[in-house]
Amino acid sequence: MLLLEIVSPEGHLFKGGVTSVTVPGSDGEFQMLNHHANIVAVLVEGTIKIAVPDFKTNKDFSVKFNKSEKDQKFLLHIKSGTLELKDNRIIILVD
Questions:
Q1: What is the Cα–Cα distance from 58 to 45, expressed in whole angstroms?
Q2: Where in the cell does this protein reside (predicted)?
Q3: How far apart are CA 71 and CA 82, in angstroms?
Q4: Pairing label, strands 89-94, 2-8
Q5: Which residue in 27, 41, 42, 71 is deepest, having the highest Cβ count within 10 Å?
């Protein structure tokens, strides 16, 4: 399992264990799974897709996330951001 942390200027939007994360990279959308190679990436406007067995976030930020009925992923629209994945820990800073 991956540890994902999504941070915005407003605060920590999400922190928890996930099975996969798909992000809008500058060269196209890409997905990270357990044991993915370390990476640093620039994110562009688009949607972060989070596959998580038990989604929990601060109630103040829950309105920022939508749930996809198609594939049961949680979706977060972003304007831009940066991502670092190292040793199964992903930190995403978003605008």
A1: 23
A2: Endomembrane system
A3: 25
A4: parallel
A5: 41
Read off the tokens for 14.
Answer: 């999400």
8 Å CB contact between 90 and 4: yes
Q: What is the pLDDT of residues 72-85, one digit of tens each?
A: 899 999 999 999 99
Residues 49-68 have pLDDT tens digits of 999 988 888 888 999 999 99
Contact 32, 1 (CB under 8 A): no
What residues contact 63, with CB distance under 8 A and at least 6 apart?
A: none
